Amino acid sequence: MTKIGIIVGSTRPGRRGRAVAEWVAEIAAREQPAAGFEIIDLADFGLPLLDEPHPPASGLYGKAHTIRWAEAIAGYDGFVFVTPEYNRSIPGALKNALDFVYAEWNDKAAGFVGYGLHGATRAVEHLRLVLAELKVATVRSQVALSLHHDFTISAPTEPGDLTPGPHQLSALTALLNDVVAWSRALAPIREGVPA
């Protein structure tokens, strides 16, 4: 079974990312029943700022938190990144988590569900560049959730309820289809099967 990790890219208290990831998981279970989807919440890993003495590309991980993170990421064939946009880019916690390991990301597929004032489109652009360096194939389809249109917010300090418009469902379905297909297509490369 193809395993896809849904990565919650923010660790901020009061974040909207967990609710978005749960929506993605719910739709994925319905639309892609032959694949397994699991939420990977960065807040559950408590990664400090990158503290490994060796470059991640060396694979010489010495810290328990790095080994735990590497094992988690290695277990997936692809990813859906759920990210807000912080100052026109991705959250520092997400960039830090990406930087901790290297080979565990390689030759996998990824899609993006962004949320923010403008759907986190600039954050997703940055994330695509970072993932390219990690040898992750990113799909074109993406979801851009607007805080104005896809959330019901009663107060600025409250996360609000996720209420995605109908067009977001078709965008998410296309993204999930692409991530699963690309993850399966890249399996021979991950397994070292010659072309």
Q: Which topology does CATH recognise? A: Rossmann fold
Q: How would a crystallographer describe the biggest sheet? A: 5 strands, parallel
The share of residues in extended strands comes to 15-25%
CA radius of gyration: 16 Å
Counting DSSP E segments of at least 2 residues, the number of strands comes to 7
Helix content: 25-40%
Query: So, CATH architecture?
Result: 3-Layer(aba) Sandwich
Figure out the total of helices: 6
The CATH superfamily label reads Flavodoxin domain
Give the N-terminus to C-terminus distance in angstroms: 22 Å
Q: What's the domain count?
A: 1
- Biggest sheet, spatial arrangement of strands: 2-1-3-4-5
Low-pLDDT sequence parts: none
Mean pLDDT: 95
CATH C-level class: Alpha Beta
How would you describe this structure to a colleague?
The model has no long low-confidence stretch (mean pLDDT 95). The chain has a single domain, classed as Flavodoxin domain (Rossmann fold). The chain is 37% helix and 23% strand. It has helices spanning 17-31, 64-74, 92-100, 121-133, 166-185, 187-190; strands at 2-8, 35-41, 78-84, 108-116, 136-146, 151-152, 161-162. It is α/β, with parallel strands linked by helices and 195 residues long. The strands form two sheets. A five-stranded parallel beta sheet has the order 2-1-3-4-5, sandwiched between helices. Strands 6-7 form a two-stranded antiparallel sheet.
